[in-house]
Amino acid sequence: MEEKRQGEVGIIDKWLKKHLLMYMAATRHPMILSIRDGSINISCFKTWLGQDYLFVRALVPFVASVLIKAWNDSDDSNTDVEVILSGLASLKDEISWFQNEASNWGVQLSHIVAHKATGDYCRFLESLMLPEVEFTISITAYWAIEVVYQDAFTHCLEDDAKTPPELQETCQRWGNDEFGQYCQSLKKIANRRLEKCSDDLLVKAEATFLRVLEHEVQFWNMSAMVEPEDLASK
Ligand SMILES: Cc1ncc(CN)c(N)n1
User: Fold this and answer.
1) What is the pLDDT of residue 199?
2) What's the CA gap between 109 and 115, in Å, rounded?
3) Ligand 1 neighbourhood includes 55 CB (under 6 angstroms)
4) Domain locations in the chain?
5) Best of 52, 123, 153, 183 for a ligand 1 pocket test (most atoms within 8 Å of beta carbon)
6) Are the C-beta atoms of 194 and 11 separated by less than 8 Å?
7) Which of 61, 106, 129, 145 is the most exposed place for a label (fewest CB within 10 A)?
8) C-beta separation of 138 from 69 below 8 A
9) Does 95 sit in the ligand 1 pocket, CB within 6 Å?
10) Which fold has domain 41-225?
11) 101-152: pLDDT as tens digits
């Protein structure tokens, strides 16, 4: 297979162009736009916080499985393992952040039950952890999962955003430059693998990318739904 020439558009950029509507549905969801324009209903934010805590916990074994696949199957395993390991390590911080944030907002994490969208997304992660799922597929999914948050929350930090001060820290968590660089490193690994893989695998990887976007949209939809008890207390 020919090496990609400098300046040539990578496979992921082609997908982003081809599936722009779906990508925008995930990264410019009404829930994100409501954070950005300050109209967010705080009970939706609290639902998101509790459900995302469950999701991030399920992300740990998934990222660990990507790490093992990089170790076993990568053509540049030293670099890839280092990148993935730093993501895995930062999940510990992320979980502590959720615990701290939940206590600030009065959300009891021990009482949280997974909603359907959360359960579906976690089961999807589990299906990607199977040993027969190729490294190319799992690194593509990992990049897609992270970039949706990075892009969405960066949007909430732009100069003209009216994000409420109490949600700035949440947006910073995924909208900071360092996380942006991290997503670029994941994209580079995924692109390198995709350039070299068979047509069959490429089709599978594109379908996996789309499934991540669908799950992200469902996750935002679920968070944006006001719980009946919140309506009753109004
Ligand atoms: C649903 C979801 N997608 C992505 C991320 C970013 N780790 C997250 N915390 N939650």
Assistant:
1) 96
2) 14
3) yes
4) 41-225
5) 52
6) yes
7) 106
8) yes
9) no
10) Heme Oxygenase; Chain A (1.20.910)
11) 999 999 999 989 999 999 999 999 999 999 999 999 999 999 999 999 999 9
